[in-house]
Amino acid sequence: MTASTATQPNRVDGAGRLTPANPVRFSFDGDTYHGLAGDTLASALLANDIHLVGRSFKYHRPRGILTAGPEEPNALVGIARGAARRQPNVRATVQEIHDGLDATSQNRWPSLTADVGEVNDWMSPVFAAGFYYKTFMWPKKAWDTVYEPIIRRAAGLGVAPDQPDPDRYAARYAHCDVLVCGGGAAGLSAALAAAESGASVIVCDERAAPGGALAFETDARIDGQDGHRWATETAAKLAAMDNVRVLPRTTAFGYYAQNFVALAERLTDHLDEPAPSMARERLWQVRAKRVVIATGAIERHMVFANNDRPGIMLASAARHYLNHYGVLIGRTVGVYTANDSAYAAAFDLKRAGADIAVIADIRDTVDPALLEEAGRLGIRVLTHHAVVAAGGKLRVSSIVVRPCRGGSRQVIPVDALIMSAGWTPSVHLFSQSRGKLRFDEDGRRFLPGEYAQDCASAGACNGAANLAATVEEGLAAGEAAAKAARPKATAKPLSIKAESGGSWDGLMLGAGPNPEAGKVVKAFVDFQNDVTEKDIRLAVREGFHSIEHVKRFTTNGMATDQGKLSNMHGLAIAAEALDRPIPEVGLTTFRAPYTPVTFGTIVGHGRGALFDPTRRTPMHESHERAGAVFEDVGQWKRPWYYPRAGEDMAAAVNRECVTVRKSVGMFDASTLGKIEVVGPDAAAFLHLIYTNPFMKLGVGRLRYGIMCREDGFIYDDGVVGRIAEDRFHVTTTTGGAPRVLNHMEDYLQTEFPEMKVWLTSTSEQWAVIALQGPKAAEVLAPFVGGLDLSKEALPFMSVAEGTFAGVPMRLFRMSFAGEDGFEINVPGDYGRAAWDALHDKVAEAGGCAYGTETMHVLRAEKGYIIVGQDTDGTVTPHDAGLSWAVGKAKDDFVGIRGLKRPDLAGGGRRQLVGLRSKDGSTVLDEGAQIVADPNQPPPMDMIGWVSSSYWSDNCGGPIAMALVEGGFDRMGETLYVPMPDGVVEVEVRDTNFWNPDAESDNG
Amino acid sequence: MRRFSGFAVAREAMRAHKGWGRQWDSPEPRSSYDVIIVGAGGHGLATAYYLAKEHGITNVAVLEKGWLGGGNTGRNTTIIRSNYLYDESAGLYDHAVKLWEGLSQDLNYNVMYSPRGVMMLAHNVHDEQVLKRHIHANRLNGVDNEWLTPEQAGEYCPPLNISKGARYPVTGAALQRRGGTARHDAVAWGYARAASARGVHVIENCAVTGIRRSGNGQVTGVETTRGFIGAKKVGVVAAGHTSVLMEMADVRMPLESFPLQALVSEPVKPCFPCVVMSNSVHAYISQSDKGELVIGAGTDQYTSYSQTGGLHILKDTLEAICEMFPVFTRMKMLRSWGGIVDVTPDRSPIIARTPVPGLYVNCGWGTGGFKATPGSGHVFAHTIANDNPHPINEGFTLERFTTGRLIDEAAAAAVAH
User: Fold this and answer.
1) Residues carrying CATH 3.30.9.10, chain B
2) What is the second-level CATH architecture of the domain A639-859?
3) Residue B117 pLDDT class (50, 70, 90 cuts)
4) Is A602 in contact with B136 (Cβ distance < 8 A)?
5) Alpha-carbon gap: B215 to the closest alpha carbon of chain A (Å)
6) Domain with CATH 2.40.30.110 in chain A
7) Which residues of B touch A708 (CB under 8 A)?
8) In the A/B pair of chains, how many CB contacts fall below 8 A?
9) Is B26-82+84-109+183-253+346-413 CATH 3.50.50.60?
10) A256 touches chain B (CB under 8 A)
C-alpha cells in the first residue's frame, strides 16, 4: 500500500521534510488512516483533514488541534497498545505515529460528533466559574449521594488504566559541566559553544528532532545554510563529540535546588514494536555546574467568541504543519493577528496553495514590507480589524470581522483560521529555579530578572528580539557557562552569523476588541478547562483579586497544559478588571513539572521487590528450608514460626514454646541492631545515653539498658556488653537500629562533642543465634573453644570472646525467655554454617528452632517488654515497671529532666501490669481498651489498653500485659474489656506469668 | 450577604451573572478591634466566623500577609477523619466532623464535604496492633472505625493491590466511613464570606510585624505593614510561621517547621472511590471531583521555611503509590507543590491561652490540620471569647510540654496524620 496525497487530502506534494514518504497506518476512533513516518498524530490527522479531535472538560465543546507542540490544551486522546498499555490524555501534537497506533477521542458519549455531554454547553449560562460553590446544597445529604457522583462522572478527561503496567522505566544519574535545556537555535548554539570549549555537555529537547522554531521558520539562515538543516547538522555534530550527550524526546521538567534538574526521556512510545527489553521512559537526574535555559517562547491565541472551534489554530502551528510535515490545514484560511509572525505563516500557506481569505490585524499600523508582500500575493489585509466571532460548530465555517472600534460586520467563509496574539517567553524552568521574574513593559511579558542559581537564559525565553540575537545569546551563554564550570580550560569563542526575515513584533494580551460585547458568547482564555473571559471578570467581580484566587476560582491555568497559553491572557483580563498594572497583580507560581510526567518514570525501578530493600539474615535459606513462615519486620524477613506437617500457627507456636522451656530452642536474633561503641569516654557516653549506670559495669559483664529521649519516655532498649575498658557491644531493637545510631551520633556531635567516642554499626557484621532452655549449655558446649561455660566462669549476664567451631565468637550468657541461655555472635559470613551445625545438635537434644511469635510469647510469660508494643512513646521506665533500671545516683542522663516533669513524676500514670481473663480461656485482643465500669455509655472512660496478649501453653491459659491507670495499685482488682460481642472480665496481676514463685536467676 | 442557591444561580444566568457582588468585603483597617486574628487560613477565618456567630463578637479583623487561604489551607490534600486514638483528639476531630456534616448549609457555601470513607492500611503485625487499638478506642468513644480484611479492603477500593506477593502485602485495614474530603479553597472562601457578612473585616496583604504590649504585659495591638491596629485580644493562627509571630511577644514556641509536598495527577474519569492512607508504605491518595488523583507525600527530613522540596521525596511517594496501586504507573504527575507545616513535640495542636495576657495561639497542626478546621475555629473562638478553653480543647495547652501531659498521637499511633 502506498500513501499518496489522494488518501491524505491535505498533504502537499513537495512540501515538508517527511522524506522519503514512508506510509504509516494508524487508527482514530476505530477508523483507519494513513500518515507518513515522522508525523505526529496531529499532523497525520490534519493530513486527513480531521480537525475535530476531542471534547472540552466542562462544556464538552468540540475541539480541534490548536498547537503543534507540548503546550496543546485541546487535542488530547487516549492511546492504547493492547489492553494493558492504555494511556489517557496524550497530546496528539506530541505523540509520533507508528504502524498500528490506536488512538481514541475522550470525554464524549456516545461519539465525538454527537456527544450527550454537549447539554452542558447549552446550560453554560448557569455553569459560570465557581457556580458549584453556590448550589447543590439542598437537600443536605444529596451532595455526596446525588450531585457529586454526577459531577465526578462528567469531569475528568480520559480513562485511567485499569491493568498493571507491563512496561518498565529506567533511571540515570548524571553530572555535567553544562546542561542545556532546549535544542532550538539558542540551545544548540549554547551547547556548541560550551562543547567547543571542552566542557562536558548534556543538551535535551522535548521534540523528536532538534531545531525548535527553525522547523517552521523557512526564512531562517544560520551559518550560511537553511536554519533547520543547520540545526540538524549541529545536533549530529554535537552527538558525535565525546564530551556531549544529545537527548531528543527529553523534557527538562523540574529545576530543583543546587542545579539539580530532572529530565524525562521518552524511549518507545513512538516505535512500531519496541523490543521487550527496552524501557518505556527514562528519568535523568542531572546535577549540572551550570545550566543554560533555552526553552523558547510559546505563541498565544486570540481571545474572541467561539475561538475554540476546530480548524482554528495558532499561526505558528499552521506553519509548522505545512513547512515540516507538508500538511496544509485548510483551503480557505482566515488570519487574525496582533503579531508580525502570523504574516509569514499566511504567506507560506498562500504559496502552498491555500486561499487566504483575509488577514485581520488589530493594529493600526503594520510594517509596510509585510503589507507589500501581502499585496504581491494578492492577500487582503484589514488593519485595525478584529475577528469578533467564528461560525460553525464541528469545524469553523466562517469568521465575523469588524473594525476594532465598531462598524459594519463582514462574514467571511473560511475552513480554517490561524491566529497570533504574540509570544510568551517560557520562563517556567527559570522560575522553578527560584529566579525572580521582571515585567518587561515594552514587550508586555515576564522575563528572567534576578537569578537564584548558576544558570543563564538565552534566546526567546530571555526576550531575544530575533534570530541573530538568539544565536548570539546562545553562544555567549554556552561559552560563559563552560568557562565558569572549567575555569582553567581555554574557551574557544565562536561566531555564527544568523538571520531571518521573520519578525515577532506585536502583541495582544487579554480579550480582543469585541464591539459585540454583551452577547451570550464564549471567548476562551483556557481552552481545556473552559474558562472564558467572562469567568475571569466574574471572579474579579466576586472579590477574587489575587491572581491565585482568580486561578483557583476559575481554574484558569490548572488544566493539563498548566496555562501555557492562558496565563498571560487571564492575568491581563484580571488586571484590566481590577484597574491595576499587570506586575502588581502578579503571576501564579510556576510549578514542576513543565509538562506532565508519568508516575512510572519518576518511580523507575522502585517497584515490587525493589520498592524497598528486603533484608535477610545470613541464615535465611536454612529457615526457608525448614519451612518457616516469615514475618515482615521493617525491611527484614524474620521467621515467624516453623510449622510442621499438619500444624497451624497456634499449634506450631505452642509446640515451640513448650519445647524451649522443656529442653532447648534456637532463634535467629541477627536482626537486632548492633553498635560498637569505642573510645576512652565510651563508658561515660553510655552512662549519659542510658538511664542505667554504666561507669561501673565490669569488663565481661552485660547490662540491660533503657534509653529515653529528652522527653523521658522509653525510646529503645537492649543489652550492652563491656568487651574491654574502652569497648562496648551495644544491641538495639530490630526496628530501632538506624534511629538509635542516629540518636547517639546526634548527641555525640551536638551535646557531648568533647567526648572521645566512636560509633560503628555492626548490625550486619554479626550473625546472632539465641540458644535458650535448660539444655542450652549442654548443646553449645561441644562447639565452644577457649571458654569455660560453667556458671562460675561465665555467669548469667556476662560476655566473653572465644570460638564457635573455630570461628571467632562473642558469647553473651543472657535470656529474653527467662531460661538459661546464650546469644552466640559469630561473623555474619559464618552465620548459616553455625546455625546449621547447632541446629543438628538442638534437634538431637529434642529441641527445635523457634520464630518471632514464640519469642514474643516466651518473653511475655516473663513480663519482659517489647519497645513499640508495650511502650508507645508515652511510657516512662517507671511506668513499665523498670524503675530499677534508672540509676538513682545519676545526676544526668538523656531524659532525666523530662522524667521530672510533674505529669511524668505524678500519680495517675498508666502502668504496665499483667491481666488474667477470668474465664480462663479468652485471649484478649491486642489494642483492646480497658474500663472500670462496663455499663457506661460512650464516650466511655478508658483507663488502659491491652498491649500484649497470647495463649500460653506453658502457663496453661491466656496471658496479657496492659498499661492501666494506677495499675501497680490495682493488683487483684477486676476490670473490664468491652468488646463488640460482650464484656471480658479480667483480673489485674503482676507481669511475671512463668515460674512466678521461684525467682529465677536467669530473670 | 446575597444568599447562594440553585435558584439564585439560575436567576443570575439570565443576566450574565452581573448581579453577584463581592464574596467578602475588602475594607480599610479600623484603628482598633475587639479581637484581631493573625492569619486568614481556614482556621483563622473559622475562628472569626464563630466569634461572630456564637459569641456575638463582630468587631473582629483577620489579618493576612498574602491572600486568604494561600497557606496550608490551599495546599493540603483535604483529608477529613476523626479516628484518633486519645480521648482529647477524638473529641476534637469528631467535633470537627460533626460541623463538617452541616457546614455547607451553615455557611451557605458548598464546601463539598464528601464522606466517601478513609481507609488506613496495615501491612504487618505491628500495623494491625496499632490500627486495632484505634478501632477499639474509637468504638468506646463513639467514633466509627471498622476493621476490614484485605479482601474487604480490595472491594472497597478496587485499584488497591491486595496480592500476597506485594513487597508489603496489605494485611487488613481500618475504615472510617464518615471520613472523606472537602474542597479546601471553598472552606476558606466560605468562612471569609460568612464572617464578612457578620461584620468581620478580612484584610489581605497586611503583614503583622510586631505585637505591642502595655507595661503590665497585656496585649494592646499589632504593628502591621498598614500601620498599628489596636486590640486587647490577639489570636495567632499562622501555621508554619507561628513561631516567628510569637517571638514578637517573647513567647518561644515548641514548634519545628518542615516542608511537606503534595502532587496531583492529570484528571481522569472516576477510578478511585475513597481515601487510602498507609503509614508503612507511606503515602495517601484520593481522587478530586475534577478527576485528579490527589497524593500526599512526606515531610523533608530537615526544617525549612521554603515552600518547596526535593524530587526524591516525590519519588518515594510515587513508589509507594505505585506499589499499592500498580495500575497507576502510567498516570501522569501534573503539578507538585510544597507547604510549611508546624510540628509540636507530641504532634498534637496547641489551641490555648499563652503566658501573655490577651494573646492566644492556635498552631501545631502538623500535616493534618485541614480536617479540624471547623472544630478548631469553633473551640478557639470560645477560648478567645471567654478567656478560657472550651472543654474540648482543655488539654491542648501550651503548658503540656512543660508538665509532660502530652497528647502523643504520633508516638501512640505511628500513623501519618
Assistant:
1) 118-177+257-343
2) 2-Layer Sandwich (3.30)
3) very high
4) no
5) 32
6) 907-989
7) none
8) 324
9) yes
10) yes
End-to-end CA distance of chain B: 36
* pLDDT tens digits for range B347-390: 999 999 999 999 999 999 998 899 999 999 999 999 999 999 99
Q: Which fold has domain A907-989?
A: Elongation Factor Tu (Ef-tu); domain 3 (2.40.30)
Does B190 contact A86 at a Cβ distance shorter than 8 Å?
A: no
Could you tell me the CA-to-CA distances from B180 to A836, B29, B113, B276, B367 in Å, in that order?
53, 37, 7, 10, 16
- What percentage of chain A exceeds 70 in pLDDT? 98
Quick check: A281 pLDDT over 90? yes
- Distances A303 to A312, A397, A529 between C-alpha atoms, Å: 12, 18, 15
User: Under CATH, to which class is A169-297+425-499 assigned?
Assistant: alpha beta
**β pairing state of A524-526 and A531-532:** antiparallel
In chain A, ranges of CATH 3.50.50.60 domains: 169-297+425-499
Mean of pLDDT values over B397-401:
95
Whether the CB-CB separation of A601 and A266 falls below 8 Å is answered with no
Residue A1000, pLDDT > 80, answer no
Residue position matching grid coordinates 494573646: B359
Q: Which fold has domain A509-580?
A: Arc Repressor Mutant, subunit A (1.10.10)
Q: Cβ contact (<8 Å) for B10 and A603?
A: no
3-state helix vs strand vs coil in chain A, percent to 5: 25, 30, 45
Chain A, 893 to 912: residues with Cβ < 8 Å from chain B are: 898, 901-904
Please check the confidence at residue B417 and state whether its pLDDT lies above 50. no
ipTM (interface pTM)? 0.97
d(CA A653, CA A851): 8
The percent of residues above 90 in pLDDT, for chain A, comes to 93
Q: d(Cα B226, Cα B105) in Å, to the nearest integer? A: 35
Give yes or no for A268 touching B (CB within 8 A): no
Residue-level pLDDT at B300 = 81
Q: pTM (2 decimals)?
A: 0.96
Residues B248, B249, B251: CA angle, nearest 5 degrees: 105
**Is A846 in a helix, a strand, or coil?**
coil
Give chain A's mean pLDDT: 95
A23-125, CATH topology level: Ubiquitin-like (UB roll) (3.10.20)
Q: State the CATH architecture for B118-177+257-343.
A: 2-Layer Sandwich (3.30)
Q: Is the pLDDT of residue A498 over 80?
A: yes
CA A170 to chain B, closest CA, distance in angstroms equals 13
Interface test with A, best of B311, B328, B336, B337 (most A CBs within 10 A): B311
Q: Which of B115, B322, B337 sits opposite A607 (nearest CB)?
A: B322
